[in-house]
Design goal:
The complex is a heterodimer of chains A (about 280) and B (about 400). Chain A is mostly helical. Chain A contains 12 helices and 2 strands. Chain A has helices at about 1-20, 35-80, 85-90, 100-110, 115-120, 125-130, 145-165, 170-180, 185-210, 215-220, 230-240, 245-265; strands at about 20, 30. Chain A starts with a helix and ends in an 11-residue tail after the last helix. In chain B, strands 1, 2, 3, 4, 5, 6, 7, 8, 9, 10 and 11 form an 11-stranded mixed sheet that branches. Chain B is globular. The chains are: A mainly alpha (about 280), B alpha/beta (about 400).
């Protein structure tokens, strides 16, 4: 019911808007004209940015997973009585505003900031330039910076469902595996990984969606070549005052995310997901 | 690398960054409002009903309270007994327009009694009939308005607007980072500065400077004449020459050393140069863009008499001089220069040609002319395609 009222209905409201035309140049009022061309126009103009948004989100999620698995594992199996505190520390950054975090990253990643200073003192600048991680020795206002910001934003959404899923893993299973001479890697692949899959599914759902629609990280950490789709929607609506085209682009984005989620859920019901 | 850092990131810089970023924070509310809710975020929550004068202005655009020296808002309140809610929530005039548009279009009053916006936006709002004529009969000090800003193109009869400050869009650079004095717009496209240059999201300033460098007349801008400059800008964005398109936030990147040169505003750079002496501001020989931010009273403003008191107060040369000394833009008030010259602490400002353009400077300054409604839409679309990738 909640989902219907708060999500589906407003979204359906966008459908006629996306097929309308602005009544006047300086108004957000529109008139319905069944203008399907709004869709082809935004797809043509913003197709590459859509693609970029999903690649950024996917990369950030992948990096996030690499960080989240050891973290969740450590919290679950090594946390002991510190477990609540550790979970608190994972969530803590999310309590500060997106904006403050993005701005904090700008000083860390700046040309004279500590991160590049470290990279330089380790002699990694040329190597990372070659790999495309740095652009001309810069980090701030590159795709890498956007992905770092996104990863930071979505990490708690990956860690928490994984911890919840791992809570259901009986530690004795790991002991048993060890008794059967399974090394740490094997224990992870054969025991932890399959049993944490529901948590992984939930984590992907919770992280990919907001990451694909992020506004703040690309604006502050990216350059003009690293804009994401929400920046385009923002500009269409608030600067160009093109509400119908903004609505069309929003619906395209929503449809793509829905397809992605549908693929993720296929063959696995929601009830299996340990949604917190 | 860290030892080369030109300027330590002070707490003040971080706070400024937050203040400037606040415009982006207003984005969420702005989206809601665009769907037909209330007006400006913080100004709205302040409420304008209780006899309080509500003013929206750009961030860092007035003298603020210092120990033992109350800022203009505090002094005005003390002098007049009028309570003021001064809100620094105009970060991007176009987004501000999108915020106030639904209410103004519906004929409802805003929470604000006075808003400060850039000249071209004032023209749009006046043309739409959403502004009230200012109570100039009760503002005797309006006669102190400098002649060059009288009857401007955006308000030919000078009924709806009075300038707050005006200023120049030109090139700001850090001489240590560029390694040389810059001479013109072409320097921004120098491959040696690749990725360390930014341009302004304010289309008329960025395009104006580029078009002037291209020998075009920006007082009568045309779509055809702008194409070479659009192409040049697009090329520079795609190649990575331009690191960012910014609002006021270029200031932090300049101080932090992320930018070597950028398109910026005269007063900002004058203020920053006090923190970072290596900063320079150049008005290219091809021309600089002169603009003005003006005070406007929206239709249905609840406190017109208090608005008149405020206008009269800020057009008093002594008060205007304090604001000018703090923001270091071009004051629209006659007599400010004399006031500044009298005080040894502010005397050097009186000789600053960026604050008081001399004849040679004035010859280099151009105001970006009006665009027709249809033309403007085309311009903004093309510009957005460049700035928003």
């Amino acid at each position: 019911m909640w989902l219907l009222g708060l999500y589906v209905l407003p979204l359906l409201g966008l459908v006629p808007l996306s097929l309308s035309e602005p009544l006047s140049r300086f108004g957000l009022d529109t008139v319905f004209t069944g203008r399907v061309a709004n869709y082809s126009e935004v797809l043509q103009a913003y197709g590459p940015i859509l693609l970029r948004s999903f690649s950024f989100a996917a990369i950030a999620t992948a990096v996030g997973l690499v960080l989240a698995y050891p973290l969740a594992f450590a919290i679950r199996f090594r946390g002991g009585r510190w477990q609540p505190l550790l979970i608190g520390l994972v969530v803590l950054p999310s309590l500060s505003s997106f904006l403050v975090r993005a701005i904090a990253w700008t000083s860390l990643l700046g040309d004279n900031g500590p991160v590049l200073g470290l990279v330089e003192s380790l002699g990694l600048t040329d190597g990372l330039n070659g790999l495309g991680v740095l652009r001309d020795g810069r980090l701030l206002n590159t795709p890498t910076a956007v992905i770092i910001g996104l990863t930071n934003t979505l990490l708690p959404f990956l860690v928490l469902p994984l911890v919840v899923a791992m809570q259901r893993i009986d530690p004795r299973l790991l002991e048993a595996a060890a008794d059967l001479h399974a090394g740490p890697l094997r224990r992870f692949i054969r025991v932890v990984w399959p049993l944490s899959l529901p948590g992984l599914g939930a984590g992907l759902l919770l992280s990919l969606i907001p990451a694909a629609g992020d506004v703040v990280n690309p604006r502050f950490l990216g350059g003009p070549n690293d804009r994401m789709i929400a920046n385009a929607i923002d500009n269409l609506l608030l600067v160009q005052l093109q509400a119908p085209r903004a609505a069309a682009l929003t619906l395209v984005l929503t449809a793509l995310i829905t397809v992605a989620v549908g693929l993720q859920l296929r063959g696995r019901g929601l009830e299996e997901l340990p949604l917190p | 690398m860290t030892q080369n850092r030109p300027h330590p990131r002070s707490r003040r810089t971080f706070l400024r960054q937050l203040a400037l970023g606040a415009g982006a924070a207003a984005l969420g509310p702005a989206l809601l409002q665009a769907c037909g809710r209330g007006p400006g975020g913080s100004a709205e929550s302040a409420g304008g009903a209780g006899g309080e004068l509500v003013i929206s202005n750009f961030p860092l655009y007035i003298d603020v309270d210092a120990p033992g020296a109350p800022g203009s808002v505090a002094r005005f309140q003390k002098d007049t007994g009028i309570k003021v809610r001064y809100v620094e929530d105009v970060n991007d005039v176009r987004q501000f327009f999108a915020r106030i548009q639904p209410q103004l279009a519906a004929g409802q009053p805003l929470a604000q009694d006075l808003i400060v916006l850039t000249g071209w936006m004032a023209e749009r709002l006046i043309r739409l009939g959403w502004m009230e004529p200012l109570p100039l009969a009760e503002v005797p000090n309006a006669r102190n308005l400098v002649p060059s800003l009288r009857k401007p193109s955006w308000d030919p009869e000078q009924r709806y607007s009075l300038p707050w400050q005006s200023g120049i869009a030109g090139i700001a650079y850090n001489i240590k980072a560029t390694g040389k004095e810059l001479r013109g717009i072409d320097d921004l496209f120098d491959p040696a500065l690749k990725g360390r240059v930014s341009a302004l999201l304010e289309m008329r300033d960025t395009m104006g400077l580029l078009m002037l460098a291209d020998g075009q007349d920006i007082t009568r801008p045309t779509w055809a004449a702008a194409q070479p400059s659009f192409d040049r800008l697009e090329q520079a964005r795609k190649s990575g020459q331009i690191r960012r398109f910014t609002g006021n936030d270029y200031q932090n990147d300049l101080l932090a050393g992320n930018l070597a040169a950028c398109i910026g505003w005269s007063g900002d750079v004058a203020q920053l140069a006090m923190e970072q002496p290596d900063l320079r501001f150049l008005v290219p020989d091809s021309g600089g863009v002169l603009w003005a931010d003006v005070m406007l009273m929206p239709k249905g403003a609840r406190h017109p008499r208090e608005v008149a008191r405020w206008l009269n107060w800020v057009y008093e040369p002594v008060e205007a001089a304090r604001i000018a000394a703090a923001v270091q833009y071009i004051s629209p008030v006659e007599g400010v220069r004399e006031v500044l010259a009298k005080d040894p602490a502010t005397a050097p400002l009186a000789n600053n040609t960026l604050m008081f353009p001399d004849a040679a400077m004035q010859k280099k300054l151009y105001v970006f002319g009006p665009l027709s409604v249809q033309e403007e839409a085309r311009w903004e679309e093309r510009f957005a395609q460049i700035t928003e990738g």
